[in-house]
Specification:
- This protein is mainly alpha-helical and about 150 residues long.
- It has a single domain, classed as Methane Monooxygenase Hydroxylase, Chain G, domain 1, CATH 1.20.58.
- About 80% of the residues lie in helices and about 0% in strands.
- It contains four helices and no strands.
- It has helices spanning about 5-35, 35-70, 80-85, 90-135.
- The model has no long low-confidence stretch (mean pLDDT about 85).
Length: about 150
């Protein structure tokens, strides 16, 4: 399998993995709205696995692009365009468009989920402060669980 074919294969796998991540983020948003913390926790673990997969795919993509650049003596910024030109495969532009669209959707979903989590945490904090001001302290044995510290 030549470097162009391997790069296309990796890019296709990345599209699939980003779709999976987007689906997980959509499910997470629904669970946050329906207050289903156990499912949110399970989804967080699934997201970690997908993100690790994406990291490995990206490392392999970068390695393969470097091989392609050396094989064809081209500048790094021209690699994507040259992939399409040299292979005669126009699907690289389609893959690029899919990746850009998926990444924009993921950024948006992640922002919405972060707002939902922040608002939920604020509501809980305010409720605890209110109960504390009324002389009702939360029992020490009941501690919450941090679901995620993703930035």
């Amino acid at each position: 399998m030549n470097s162009v074919t391997r790069i296309k294969s990796i890019l296709t796998e990345q599209v699939s993995a980003y779709r999976a991540l987007q689906g997980l983020l959509q499910r997470e948003r629904e669970c946050l709205l329906n207050f289903e913390p156990l499912i949110v926790e399970a989804l967080s673990k699934e997201k970690d696995t997908v993100v690790l997969t994406l990291r490995l795919l990206e490392e392999e993509r970068l390695r393969l692009v470097q091989v392609f650049i050396k094989e064809h003596g081209i500048a790094e910024q021209d690699a994507f365009r040259k992939l399409s030109e040299l292979s005669g495969d126009d699907s690289f532009q389609s893959i690029r468009t899919q990746l850009v669209s998926l990444l924009q959707g993921i950024v948006e979903l992640n922002s919405v989920n972060r707002v939902l989590i922040d608002r939920s945490a604020s509501i809980v904090k305010n409720a605890l402060n209110f109960l504390g001001s009324a002389g009702i302290a939360a029992p020490a044995a009941h501690k919450g669980a941090l679901l995620s510290r993703e930035a």
